[in-house]
């Protein structure tokens, strides 16, 4: 039985194949009406996508749009692994972590 690689050990090609595999599983779960399973695959895809994002592109103190949560913005306090820690703007200043793939620049041209 082959051992499963960690996302951090995968090449870009392997990560993209994993995303495609998860996308197909999510599509099947959605067709079957298994919403919980669909949500799990969506979250896994976001995590894999985070390994395709260069953490150096995420700036501490910068504000980002949150993909999948329209109208919400997130200010990054620090990075730890593939997660950005900070808080949502306009809400309670509770600290939370988001996968870096969920952060989209609000600057023009990015």
Key attributes of the depicted protein:
110 residues, 23% strand, alpha+beta, single chain
Describe the protein in words.
By secondary structure, the protein is an alpha+beta fold. It is built from 2 helices and 5 strands; from the N terminus they run ααβββββ. The protein has a 5-stranded antiparallel beta sheet with strand order 4-3-2-1-5. It is globular and about 40 Å long. The protein starts with 11 loop residues before the first helix and ends in a 5-residue tail after the last strand.
Alpha-carbon distance between the two ends? 43 Å
Number of strands: 5
Biggest pleated-sheet summary: 5 strands, antiparallel
Radius of gyration: 15 Å
Shape: globular
Uncertain runs are none
Please count the helical segments. Answer: 2
On the 0 to 100 scale, the average pLDDT is 91
**Succession of helices and strands:** HHEEEEE
Topology record:
Layout: H1 12-31, H2 35-50, E1 63-66, E2 73-80, E3 83-88, E4 96-99, E5 103-105
Antiparallel strand pairs: 1-2, 1-5, 2-3, 3-4
């Amino acid at each position: 039985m082959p051992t499963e690689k960690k996302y951090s050990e995968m090449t870009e090609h392997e990560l993209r194949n994993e995303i495609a595999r998860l996308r197909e599983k999510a599509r099947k779960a959605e067709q079957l009406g298994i919403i919980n399973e669909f949500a799990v695959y969506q979250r896994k895809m976001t995590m894999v996508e985070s390994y395709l994002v260069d953490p150096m592109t995420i700036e501490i103190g910068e504000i980002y749009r949150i993909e999948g949560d329209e109208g919400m913005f997130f200010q990054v306090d620090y990075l730890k692994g593939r997660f950005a820690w900070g808080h949502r703007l306009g809400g309670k200043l509770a600290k939370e972590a988001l996968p870096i793939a969920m952060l989209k620049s609000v600057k023009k041209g990015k």
